[in-house]
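ingest -> validate -> predict -> emit
validate: passed (alphabet ok, no gaps, 396 aa)
predict: started
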Amino acid sequence: MASSPATGVIGVELQAAGENLNTWGNPKLTNTLQVLSNLSVKFLTLAMSGDTTVSETNYSVTNTTEVAVIKLTGGTLGAAANLVIPGRAKRLLIWNNESYTITIKLAATAGIALPAGRWTWVTTDGSTDVYNHAPNHMGTGFVPTLSGDVVNVLYVTNAIAALIGADTNGLVLVSAGDTTASYLNSKLVVSGLLKKALGSGGGNETLNVETALYTASGTNTYVITPSPALASYASGNSFLVLFTNASTGASTLNVSGLGAKALTKNGATAVASGDIPAGSVRLCAYDGTRFQLAASIEAEVTVPPLGLTLSAAKTSGFTAVASNLYPCTFGSSGTITLPSSATVGDTIGLSLGDSTKIYTVAPGGSLKMNGSTASVVFPSNNSYILTYNSTAQGWV
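emit:
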């Protein structure tokens, strides 16, 4: 019987009985022992520049896949590639040290895809296909995704240590003593009418949301600088504004340097002098074109003081003079004559007492009273303010 290779396993040479007498030791036995040694411990680096097909011969000590570990490297790949291995039954540890996925397969099978940077044990029966002998793939120097990866305890331990190391924004901190702004503060963004205040940066973190008040600088061309800054104007932007200086005419509001927008009241009516008193707080809402003062600002209605001088009490008829207030306690009925000349706005006050007396009020000269030159009897026990309105109306 002639020498033959080990069937379906590895390419070592089997000897027939009595064959190679006195010549078996070298090279045949030596080669066989070298192949077995390679299978046990040899680490082979295989350069990949594209799809690679490995061919092997029996009894060779340089067969590519008859080793313990293959490192796929070379760094010249520009895309994913295939590694086609011979149809021999084997188990092999392969490390994909390239930057692209490499598929390990037989000539006519699908094989397994080994991602860049990963390790796996492959097995094959030499004819059906190549199989992943590890549960998914083993990582190299990073934390596995845990979607079926073999968990590298060291990597997980290091990752946990890194996460619980320094206290930084964006981490959920666990120590009650932490003062670094934490998860809520980094994730909750407020602007416009609202602001936030961090109560505690650690495990007992609290975050207060409060109404923001912005102080406007300038006069008429008002400016506020919210924090965080407003990125762009949008309909509905609203700000509670403390105006240090009063408006003296048409005014604008500029937020975060985005450009001055008209300040208006009652819709599109421009703010006028005095509409915004110094030190007042106003809610300013952007309608897409302008900032409207949310509450209508109307001129304050004031009644100027009458400025009447109190006269001595009158006990009988008399002729009145503008800007005087006359208490009347007539001894008998009588006539009060209004001035014969008057200017619009002239005012006279009458306080008529004693209900038994008749008080007659007559316009003086050619002037009128209530649009007529006729005299009028005023009921007693009443007070009256007469103001000269116009030539046509006279005293009213």
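The CA atoms of residues 197 and 208 lie 5 Å apart.
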